[in-house]
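Chapter review: from sequence to fold.
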Amino acid sequence: MNKPLRHVSLVLAVLLLFLFGSTTYFQVIKAEELNSNGRNARTIYNEFGRPRGPIVVDGVAVASSTKVNNRYGLKREYARGPLYAPVTGYNSVVYGFGGMERAVNEELSGKADSLFYDRLMTVLSGHDPQGAQVELTINAKAQEAAYDALGDQRGAAVAIDPDTGAVLAMVSTPSYDPNLLASHDSTKVQKAWKKLNSDPSKPLNNRAIAGNLYPPGSTFKLLVAATALDSGNYTPESEIPGPGSYQLPNSSTSLANHPNGDTSACGPNDVSSLQSALEQSCNTSFAMLGVQLGEDALEKKAAEYGFGEKMEIPLAVTPSSIASDMDDAQLAMSSIGQYEDKVTPLQMAMMAGSFANDGIVMEPQLIKSVRTGDLKEVKALTSHKKSQPLSAASAAQMRQMMEATVTDGTAKRAQIDGADVGGKTGTAQWAKGKKPHSWFVGYAIKGDKKVAVAVVVEEGGYGSTVATPIARDLMKAVIEE
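The token string follows.
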């Protein structure tokens, strides 16, 4: 009799041991992993049911959470969704987060270390936890001006404050409505997601900082000119070759001086000043100048501007780039913004900003402030110097040449009454049989107001006719506010 009882007791002891062990394993050891598992419905309900802080532009919430009568309890809503979508991103119960919703999720959800004291006080007071309010540096008037000017065209526009690095506008078109992805109807969300991802115009791409980067075309001549000035061997008045055509070194290809095969020379006797070459956007002048300066000098200057460097603003920015180990023919084409040059509009706006800021590049930033639920500020924008690719003297010479380009050259449509405007147009070839991309890169200064911009319109044609008026409207929105 005792032997069977011992067997039963042993079996029960083993079962209790397994029960205790499995409970400990899942509730203690595996707890964090299970909580973070995307298939854990309770975690999803907790995440989306937590009061989430708003994303604010000029004092107005452009992303906020409202109460709903379903299992989630709260739903994210986006005011003027397509206007701000490239910045705010989306918050979806099916596909997670994108844009600033992802980049500052810790702050918006109230989990950030900087909010620990606020969380503690909330718990002690018996109130529901609240996410922080994140105010962006975006200027609502500038954002709307760029969005309206781009209209139905594919492209992007960026504006920054050259003195602080604050991003004042970031528009990418075509855009999308993040409210479609914030819906709690999974079937509708999946349908919208599939449609957005199958759209050949790629509305989910933020063309201002990512996606398929662009050849900069003639706007890259700004970097070549800056490299020449900073070498100490050139001034705006320096004479450089400007023939109507240029046979690329060790190549049978001949480069025309202007678009559509125009072989007009840039100056008498095929000679131009550096300033005149920039005003006229002479291809042969800058192709030959780039070869003269050499690949090492151009690569060094590009690196000083941030080419090849990953950035987070806090949105992730795809690094701009130029090729390496080029022969002289490739270097000549790279020097006019072709070959394998690839840039973001943000990178080009940063370059323009340096000319308006005595050669200094400031770190671009999208966050103006972070505030607790009771509006106590826990984080504020602090300006950071990123680099100084140019001396103040060279930057002043760049302003002289760029302002002449707006006054007398290809960028006349950028003029703004009462403002000092400098700029450079670009017409970037990118695929055989396709219209070129249209570019404008520049700045405007009026009193104590400054702005640096970059605008690209895909297959827009000439930069002087398409991108430049868009940039003018954007600059006016900032400096005439």
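Two observations follow directly from the output. The chain has 18 helices and 21 strands. The first helix runs from residue 2 to 29.
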